[in-house]
Design brief:
The structure is a homodimer.
Chain A: E1 3-8, H1 16-31, E2 35-40, H2 46-57, H3 63-87, E3 92-95, E4 102-104, E5 113-116, H4 119-126, E6 130-134, E7 137-139, E8 145-147, H5 152-164, E9 168-173, E10 194-196, H6 197-208, H7 213-222, E11 225-230, E12 238-241, H8 245-249, E13 254-270, H9 275-285, E14 290-297, E15 302-310, H10 314-327, E16 332-345, H11 355-365, E17 372-376, E18 379-385, H12 389-399
Parallel strand pairs in A: 1-2, 1-9, 2-6, 3-6, 9-11, 10-12
Antiparallel strand pairs in A: 4-5, 7-8, 11-12, 13-15, 13-16, 14-15, 16-18, 17-18
Chain lengths: 413, 413
Amino acid sequence: MPILVQKFGGTSVANAEKIRRAAGRAIEAKKRGNQVVVVASARGQQTDELIADAKEVHPNPPKRELDMLLSTGEQQTVSLLAMAIDAMGHKAISFTGAQVKIMTDDSYTKARIQSIGADVIRGKLDDGYIVIVAGFQGMEAGGNITTLGRGGSDTSAVALAAAMGADFCEIYTDVDGVYTADPRIYKKAVKMKQISYDEILELASLGAGVMHSRSIEFGKKYNVTIHVRSSMNNNEGTYITHEVPLLEGILVSGATIQKDLAKITLNSVDNKPGNAARIFEHLAAAKVVVNDIIQTEISADKANVSFTVGKSDLLTAQEAIEKIRKGVHCDSVFVRENIAEVSVVGVGMRSHYGVANMMFKALADLKINIEAITTSEIRISCLVDIKDAIKAYETVCDAFELDKTVEKRNQPK
Amino acid sequence: MPILVQKFGGTSVANAEKIRRAAGRAIEAKKRGNQVVVVASARGQQTDELIADAKEVHPNPPKRELDMLLSTGEQQTVSLLAMAIDAMGHKAISFTGAQVKIMTDDSYTKARIQSIGADVIRGKLDDGYIVIVAGFQGMEAGGNITTLGRGGSDTSAVALAAAMGADFCEIYTDVDGVYTADPRIYKKAVKMKQISYDEILELASLGAGVMHSRSIEFGKKYNVTIHVRSSMNNNEGTYITHEVPLLEGILVSGATIQKDLAKITLNSVDNKPGNAARIFEHLAAAKVVVNDIIQTEISADKANVSFTVGKSDLLTAQEAIEKIRKGVHCDSVFVRENIAEVSVVGVGMRSHYGVANMMFKALADLKINIEAITTSEIRISCLVDIKDAIKAYETVCDAFELDKTVEKRNQPK
């Protein structure tokens, strides 16, 4: 009998009615002939509420104890889900991460899964149970409870699918799949049927926020097809898979936009080994999240170093930079506020030339100035002024026909 | 270094401020030279809220899953307590019942502790930690989480004290000890310095509700002195101990009153083996809590069977009785509503005559009629009409000088 893993996020189990709906889905999947493993997150905003409780007694709660606290959220959900399934006349049993031996390292609050003991789960599946496992949590070798960090339930689900030899992992969420572009901005965006692990990783790191990156890495490594879909309807969502010919052929799978960025440029930095490390070490210590970094030599021993940060981090970043300037010489610091980043992502770039050109031309046609450019193997990002951001995003989406499903595009396939 | 176990009930950890106060107490005890183990209950009304959550998805939640759910309440408290102690600059570590191997049978929702592995706790105590253990919960042999039933945290605490070889277990609660009588009714009641395990067991079963009975049994069996005291001040509370000469000498330690009772009498029941079992089996099946039972032969083959129930159970009890009458013949059923039970408890009854007489005389002096009498080795209970209840209680308390501490009484010591 095939094994199916279903994961329900916090919004999909936020109240009794939604818990019953999730229970109903698990039962349907079982009736269709699957052995079903369910992974669940904490209900609604509970994790945030527990963090607030912790902050009330400790400004910086010890991480081991924080994990002890936060893991209760998922434990509550899984027991309630098991009850709901029982109430509908089917056998169900819930487990904590520790009980099914989801073993992790001891990096509390951001632990990494090392192994999963599939025996307990397999035994209960063979006895006809729907098995419900608390997401987001595991146990380190000493028996202490760990958590996997934000979005960790996705990782639990895909890792469990891998450990159980499941072909599919369904991620139920409050969106009905992955879109070619942000539908709130580019109204013509369409839902993708498929996307590759590499592409979704780029999209995720650009703030598309559909799936936890580590879960995608698990899926890629262990060959688990991930199906992102809505918990509110029965529509097919988006399958995240290895690259398939259909995907390889197209130029661009999706486009993202990040607004509220600021760019900081350090002019004429001494181009000595260790200077870059020193700069970004200080920023990391100040907990500034740095997006793109651009460094270019301007002479034999001088370089300009630029990077973007979220606008909310700008002040902290500037303070950190002032400290850096005591150790790392630079002529001046230039801050550009109010910029946005428009990116396109696609594995097709690997085999097709001219993708960058298409993007630059689309922007040039509207006389939109490009402030900076960065690229990866499957991504091109352009920084533009915030006043041009929406226009830039729409024209790029149009240029790559992101309003059409893959089959209907006129580009090389 | 002596080991001290401190237990904080739900009201003593209901919010951040109270958690900090409990943390402060644990630290003080450590500074006084103890190794400190803290046992905590779920915060405030949380257990009730979780039960309500469960009822929303299942009218009669499976007990294994209910324990999985309810055990999260205590887990949250212990991690928050550990954080609070850390914030005050002392080392603390929290554990679930499972993590410190509180092994129970598999009677979910009312499991009994079978053994406790003291090694983990001892190791952390020796490393200088204050160790905080989730009360109310354990683990059965298969690794499933169990709970010990209402008030189970008391049992966890005393059992841990026994397992760790602690001489004392402090129970912090919202009352400042055990009183000779209910101070809401008998204003002159005084706090007892000491009371024996046997006496508090009788008082508990009579509704005084200070401590969970099973915890007292543990204390008695393993020689743990229990100190019931207030979490709001530093006053000495009441020590629950084995009998000591001081206690043995006095006639009566305390008095209780239970109002809102009803008495049901079955007249002329066939006095055949098995009839009593049949009657009370039916009442138990209907979940009627039966207090006292009085059976007297009225002829060679007939008996009258009386018992008291809470007024709220009266209708259910009467329905059960009607069913019983099909199988167990009786001439008539007589129901006496609106009665109360006044009881006195004291180990001194074992060695002093005339205690019953003192009680009956006190009631007779006020012309209060006694509807029924039951006794145990260390208890005498009289049923009286509800209209006489307060008066009866007060006069009995006066008769046994329950307004005075033991040392000041004029009775034989």
